[in-house]
């Protein structure tokens, strides 16, 4: 399995948004959508603001493959579903820390149980 370089991790983790284009069942990419991304150690994670109703997330969960663009990094990725409560607690803190200026309106839904249930780890391919 491929890993992120330190440069890629830093570049993606320090940008506000990531362009996410999961692959459909037929292998074609959906139109890219901007989403938030956080770093935990040497991994990158995303969640669906709308929970399981997020269309990009449903597509990503179906194919487990897609393409991301952020901070000058352009990569094909695999999506790994994550459900560890300890990890989700750390990611909640990462979302609050990175996006705290959006507290309330946007941050709280990203750390709610509905969003936590959609946590995906991004693994470069």
From TrEMBL:
It comes from the Bacteria. Pfam families: DUF2255. This is DUF2255 family protein.
């Amino acid at each position: 399995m491929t890993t992120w370089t330190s440069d890629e991790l830093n570049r993606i983790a320090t940008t506000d948004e990531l362009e996410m284009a999961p692959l459909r069942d037929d292998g074609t990419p959906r139109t890219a959508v901007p989403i938030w991304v956080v770093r935990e150690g040497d991994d990158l994670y995303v969640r669906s603001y709308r929970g399981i109703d997020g269309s990009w997330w449903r597509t990503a969960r179906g194919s487990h493959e897609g393409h991301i663009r952020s901070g000058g990094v352009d990569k094909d990725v695999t999506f790994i579903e994550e459900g560890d409560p300890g990890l989700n607690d750390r990611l909640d803190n990462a979302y609050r820390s990175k996006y705290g200026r959006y507290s309330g309106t946007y941050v709280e839904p990203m750390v709610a149980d509905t969003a936590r249930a959609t946590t995906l780890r991004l693994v470069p391919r």
